Amino acid sequence: MQSRTRVRRHPERGVYDAETVHAILDEGMIAHVGFVDGETPVVIPTAYGRDGASMYLHGSAVALWSKRMAEGVPVCVTVTLFDGLVLARSTFKHSMNYRSVMIFGNAVLVSDSQEKLHGLERIVEHLVPGRSREARGPNETELTATSVLRLSLAESSAKIRSGGPLDDDADFSRPVWAGVLPAAVTYGTPVPDALVPPIVSPPDYIRLYER
Amino acid sequence: MQSRTRVRRHPERGVYDAETVHAILDEGMIAHVGFVDGETPVVIPTAYGRDGASMYLHGSAVALWSKRMAEGVPVCVTVTLFDGLVLARSTFKHSMNYRSVMIFGNAVLVSDSQEKLHGLERIVEHLVPGRSREARGPNETELTATSVLRLSLAESSAKIRSGGPLDDDADFSRPVWAGVLPAAVTYGTPVPDALVPPIVSPPDYIRLYER
To answer: Is B170 contained in some domain?
Structure first.
């Protein structure tokens, strides 16, 4: 663990084991990728997939940068899961329950076409496990049109807040409700495309989708 | 609209009216705040609240920066709502439905204590409308311990992807299910703190909470 991954604000919420970091990444759907354009910070939401101790990021504006940098582009990638609202007796103690991961490193543009195929498969399998076995894989034109970036998870840390409000003793006598309103991402009924033949029903990995 | 807010990738998804930008911010819960530390980008998840054409950000590592900069710290704030998975007949056309807002500007540390109180109230009311009338407001010590940043929404844009997959004509004959798996944040049963008197039940703004 290098120093820039140390959780400074609320250090008691810092978690550094790979298992926790991987579990949060595996549950998350969108990564917020930060990079620097001149002196301007830019934060872009992006699809991703994990592959052991690395992650692949779907190409976007970041790829334009990586092309110009042989060593890759310095990024900070943050994935945040929102778990609930924490309602305390004082406004000051209000909080959110969440699990987040922050990764520092250089995102490197994947140029090898075999690794690019592999990275794209990891991204699709991250979104919908099982999908890459059914959908048509990318052809040469599509592969060229896509950018994939690889980022090591070596410099990563997690931050977790869970549980109820931490009110001051003096506030417990207040006749105000306090506690947690749990939140989660839930998935609805699959909506088929108009051109899906009626005989083709949603596969189990869609019907029973959960993270 | 200045040029850095123009949506470059998938420009057809760009939306620039304030009404759309405000609606996405009002529905969102967590902002990803990007700033630059030396040459390193940093992206931190933060609570926020909107106030007309400005937003207030809850203090965090960003506040350490703002103190040192009279004009505020250059930030990019991104709020992303995840609306669903888009399953196409080819892996290449897979996508996500989402609504995001990106804001560029200088986040300024709020030093006036009246505005700080106002900013904190906007943040709490953003999370749980109605809450600031019931919970105890911040005392002097708490106010000093909190940082609030103000950011103008003048340089902001939204990006929206909705609807089904956009498959190539040649792929429609494939016998694979395609469509959208809708996603949304949902809220569970409120969990009271152990010390809430049994006579105090969750108020309507918690029981009927929705965004």
So the answer is: no
What distance separates the 2 farthest-apart alpha carbons in chain A? 68
A136, A147, A191: best to mutate for the B interface, most B CBs within 10 A: A136
Q: Tell me, yes or no, if B136 comes closer than 8 A to chain A by beta carbon.
A: yes
Residue A173 forms part of a structural domain: no
Q: For chain B, how many structural domains are there in total?
A: 1
Tell if the pTM clears 0.90, that is, is over it. Answer: yes
Residue B151 domain boundaries: 3-164+195-207
pLDDT higher than threshold 70 for residue B2: no
Q: Return the pLDDT at A2.
A: 53
B33/A contact by beta carbon, under 8 A: yes
Residue (of B159, B138, B156, B136) closest to B147 by Cα position: B138
| Spatial separation of the C-alpha atoms in residues A104 and B57, rounded to whole Å | 23
pLDDT, one tens digit per residue, over B142-157 is 999 899 999 999 999 9
Tens of pLDDT, residue by residue over B170-200, are 999 898 999 999 999 999 999 999 999 888 8
